[in-house]
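Lab notebook, page 48
Experiment: co-folding of the full assembly
Goal: obtain a model of how the components sit together before planning crosslinking
Operator: M.T.
Materials (sequences as entered):
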Amino acid sequence: MHYKKRTHTCGELRVSDIGKAVTLTGWVDTRRDLGGVVFIDLRDRYGKTQVVFNPQRNQKVHDLAGELRSEYVILVSGKVERRPAGTENPNLATGEIDIMADELTILNKADTPPFPIEDEVNVYEEARLQYRYLDLRRSPMQRNLITRHKMYLITREYFDELGFIEVETPVLMKSTPEGARDYLVPSRIHRGKFFALPQSPQTYKQILMVAGLDRYFQIVKCFRDEDLRADRQPEFTQIDVEMSFVDEDDVQKVVEELMARLFKEIKGIDIPTPFPRLTYKEAMETYGSDKPDTRFELKLTNINHVIQDSGFRVFSETVKKGGVVAGLVAPHCASYTRNQLDNLTDYTKSLGAGGLVWMRVMDGSIETPGEKFLGKETVNIILEEMQAKPGDLILLISETWMKAYTILGTLRLEMAKRLNLIDESKQAFVWITDFPMFEHDETEKRYVAVHHPFTSPKLEDLHLLDSEPLKARARAYDLVLNGNEIAGGSIRIYDRGLQSKVFNLLGIDDEQAKKKFGFMLDAFRYGAPPHGGIAFGFDRICMLLCGEKSIRDVIAFPKTTSAMSLMDDSPSEVDAKQLKELHIKIV
Amino acid sequence: MHYKKRTHTCGELRVSDIGKAVTLTGWVDTRRDLGGVVFIDLRDRYGKTQVVFNPQRNQKVHDLAGELRSEYVILVSGKVERRPAGTENPNLATGEIDIMADELTILNKADTPPFPIEDEVNVYEEARLQYRYLDLRRSPMQRNLITRHKMYLITREYFDELGFIEVETPVLMKSTPEGARDYLVPSRIHRGKFFALPQSPQTYKQILMVAGLDRYFQIVKCFRDEDLRADRQPEFTQIDVEMSFVDEDDVQKVVEELMARLFKEIKGIDIPTPFPRLTYKEAMETYGSDKPDTRFELKLTNINHVIQDSGFRVFSETVKKGGVVAGLVAPHCASYTRNQLDNLTDYTKSLGAGGLVWMRVMDGSIETPGEKFLGKETVNIILEEMQAKPGDLILLISETWMKAYTILGTLRLEMAKRLNLIDESKQAFVWITDFPMFEHDETEKRYVAVHHPFTSPKLEDLHLLDSEPLKARARAYDLVLNGNEIAGGSIRIYDRGLQSKVFNLLGIDDEQAKKKFGFMLDAFRYGAPPHGGIAFGFDRICMLLCGEKSIRDVIAFPKTTSAMSLMDDSPSEVDAKQLKELHIKIV
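Observation: model returned without errors.
Model output:
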């Protein structure tokens, strides 16, 4: 049908508009019939406006208004009037005015929606995903998408000001050696050959540095076909950055100022820079995590030197075997009952610990199962080392380095939750640096890169590549916010020989390297500059800026944790004809 | 190695910097040895700076400079000095100064590149694509990428100012009925099922309108697995736009102002708005094309009414059969030799015409093979109708409507080129409107949508859907610039019933429609607003803004016309293990 155009949105009219003839369009949010008069809250993205259908003003229009149901799409013309005194709605930007309706057009009808379009809905997420077009009508979701839009724009303007160039890298690219997680795309024209979707534009951004682009960024979709965990998506968005002739500080400074700007412009929060820095070793030994939540203390303490010669053999044997005895102090928890302590022990065992040693700190003494083996003097030193005060509870783990700290890190988070130590209003950023280059994969019986195969070793550790590669540290850095890893980057290898050596250490032989990365090794022949960069998890940062708990709430059309789209029911079966054209067959 | 940081880029130093100690990094562009002194042009993205290695200043550094070759990556420290009088280079922003080198570090060596890094290179495009990292070092290519970056930013800021929200739509989506051109992505988790890469985010942007987003845009990658033509890419970039509660004018106005802003900010050209509008019928009958190049006239004239009763049966029979006799006037071409005319006739036949009737216009008479059949009076009316002047050459075609105008459209472009009628400095925008809804596909023996299945028919043509669908016109509009279609859009169907009817006309039965588009038809149940939009070919507009002839020159990593990436040799074979995990097999 032909219809008039709106003169205003539903969030726009104010007292200053009183007397104007206006036309609004939108969705029927609510309808009330009061004393023969119909009241409609008309809703669009911009707000809500109350429309009054008075039979004394126009009987026909009033009668038509009686047919309106929630979510009908309508067009209303009428006059702006001041609301009667006492009926103003201070919670609504348009709450001081009404539209007295003279005309009404129903543009589209609506079935009763499966859930109401309200800020809080009590409905399974599956229903929200299936009826995403209704879920996205809810204002919290619209606010999230608007915040996301702002985040795109602020990010882009920021990088533009610093002389970065946004370059689109290919989505149809080459499958990489970590190919197990690549989404593949069969080629119709080239039988038996495949493109892969990028897990990241890593190789391309490095190529752009070789090309002399100097400062590159991109907000870019990436893909990972992995078994999904709660808060992962098969397609996700990254802020991807690369810079030439830089070291760690240069990249980190660019990142810190971006974070400060995003938090300032979106949340009005001042974030002090520079951010604190911890080495991987410090982070593990202090917080039991390489992505520590530093909004609260509850730090870990190593007491190896105190108990290595003690009579408590559980401890001294661990130290002898190169392990770690470390723990944390749970403040004011000496009053934990035996039952609570057993429960904590079980929890720690469920994390893989052999056991948990607890010490109730009393006034001048402690209660602990191992007391008689430790001796009073050792106990006193422990109390002093751990800065435990009467009324506190000490929790100790005795395991290998990695196991002890990993378990304590989880226990630390658990205790913080139980003790309500986390200040949700804090924004605790921290850089984690000096990661190991490699770790040993027990299943594959080879070294794997802790970051990725293009990360440069620290120059002072170069000699360790030949002798003790597991001890070599990388020029890698992760940015952590409130316990979430939100960005990871590194200074890259730009020397062909060193790159080959690292490939070889990773079990990628020369032939494989040539096949998969030949173009990059070739590029390095023609004058590669020193360079480094970083990639941010856009969805996760957006989630944190929106104050949401799930990245699915800041993505317009997310997939479920089993990588399905419930709205359009994809992935789905396709025609046999299509598969035939692609030269593939389902097995 | 550890190295100092640059203090300036290679495009930055001026006379005002004379006396400063500076450090620059970059690539060796050229090296000259003159009278024992080595001169280097050092290059980065920002420009070039001349560095002088004088043995009297520092013998060791001078000797090391002797080892430098083109494309070595170096770091130079030295003092900024004024160039000796007469040696300034006015073509270089830094042309008034030199760096007198005190230190030199070779950061990376380089093999001799396969082609020189110069503005103009005489080399096959294949080599440029294979060594893209070298090709992108050339300043015209860097300028193109920078223009592209600006175009992203201007576009995004423009839409933001107008209240549009950028929303990312999924890349892993559902395969559509035009699935033959979909790139498919097998699912590892859901055996036998596939995602498709979007040919456009059409359904999602319409869903966003149903969700009440009101104004959406996105700069987005799209994919089409078609047999490639010269200037198409399997992955290409679109500016995608959708608006609610609008008609054609609203969308067109938004587009016109965007184009005006892009041309103003990037090229400094004022583009007058609004753009002219032609219906499809007018465009075909005036220019012989639905994407007419309106930088020049050379319009077509239909002379059916003049010759329908003439004795020249070739013409009168055509008119009787419902065909068209039409032609154009080639100015000052009456002097064409018989040989030239035969050549033109052959060209026209190669386009599918049965023949070409020419008329040399002399002073007071004409020369034409058909003269005796037409008679002097008819000839005079033809001259008058076509506004031909003595010295001109009339070229006439007699065919069915579509064939006559299509052939004349091609002939018109050909004559414009031969006669050099195209003013390359002009920017001729034109909207083409009122396209037919459907055309009949002779191979598939069914109607196909001229735009797409979601395009609304014109309201006054709704009744034709039942009786004469081929006559129904669509609310579709294309934007054409200098003969290039750069955008296409429409007002959409937002009524479930009408959408079903159009699907049915297109041979998509209810079951198929439910399977492929069920979610959209469902969405239409819950209050869909009237809406419309448009999509722009970003690559093509960028190409025109950069003054390039190929979209490959404005894409960082394009594929060849056979959909291959020469740099990384993709698509490529993948491990049998990967295919097994995806439950597929090559046949």
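Interpretation: Residues 305 and 319 of chain B are 9 Å apart (CA to CA).
Next step: discuss with group before ordering constructs.
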